[in-house]
Design brief:
Distance between the termini: 29 Å
Low-confidence stretches: none
CATH architecture of the largest domain: 3-Layer(aba) Sandwich
CATH class of the largest domain: Alpha Beta
Number of helices: 7
Order of helices and strands: EEHEEHEEHHEEEEHEEEHEEEEHEE
Number of strands: 19
């Protein structure tokens, strides 16, 4: 079993062969010569999967002790990291942020409001967690639909957003109908198609669990879930395609 020594908030792998083994299997950290220094979140995953043993002095360290050293944010990162590793991915934790294939993964709890005005600055993956530590991964991609308002001052209140969005979509040649029976605000048709392509919600924020629900419904009925919000700084609506990634 690979041995690690807890030193402050790092776990040091002193054996060069063990350090090399962990590197080859995707566990990254700080290289100290041939040694490897791991953060607590990566160490927790390895300890949980029984890949390493951790000691402090002569005393073994448990997973619960490592968890007790983590902040709430670090616990969420550790949960997402462990989930992705268990699914065969090779996530990395860099400077307290989670990445997969070089792409940032933003992490939210299911009872947390997700601010789309922040997501607009970085197209990412979303990891959504529940209180039991279950994790779901979503892709988040900007759609090339740009909708500027006509004949307005550019100021749109939250209450006005749905109405203004419908006007923008109609300007783009799309047909809009109620999405009520699918749990969304709208269903969107392109051209003369009798099959709605999108289920769409609008607003600057959305609860994580609402995204989980509508994204699953959309994929089950062969539609795409799109979340839109009005970007006041740019004077236009922005559209994000959100898809559950089956791992």
């Amino acid at each position: 079993m690979i041995q690690g020594k807890l030193r402050n908030r790092r776990v040091l792998i002193e054996n060069e062969a063990d350090a090399s083994t962990l590197r080859n299997k995707g566990s990254t950290g700080r290289n100290l010569g041939e040694k490897l220094s791991l953060d607590l979140m990566t160490s927790l995953d390895l300890l949980t999967r029984k890949r390493i043993e951790i000691t402090k002095g002569e005393n073994p360290i448990t997973t619960e002790q490592i968890k007790g050293m983590l902040s709430d944010t670090e616990k969420d990162i550790a949960t997402s990291y462990h989930f992705l590793k268990a699914k065969g991915m090779r996530p990395q934790i860099k400077r307290g942020k989670l990445y997969a294939d070089g792409t940032r993964i933003l992490i939210f709890r299911d009872d947390q409001e997700i601010d789309f005005t922040v997501l607009a600055r970085n197209v990412n993956f979303l990891s959504i967690l529940d209180s039991e530590g279950n994790c779901l991964l979503y892709s988040l991609n900007k759609l090339p639909i740009y909708g500027r308002l006509r004949g307005t001052s550019g100021l749109v209140s939250d209450a006005q957003e749905p109405t203004e969005l419908v006007d923008v979509l109609k300007q783009k040649g799309m047909r809009v109908a109620s999405g009520f029976k699918f749990g969304s605000m709208f269903r969107i048709y392109e051209g003369s198609s009798s099959h709605a392509r999108y289920l769409m919600n609008v607003g600057r924020q959305s609860l994580g669990r609402d995204i989980v629900a509508i994204a699953r419904i959309a994929q089950s009925v062969r539609k795409t879930y799109v979340h839109s919000f009005y970007d006041a700084a740019k004077g236009q609506f922005k559209f994000f395609e959100i898809k559950w990634i089956r791992l």
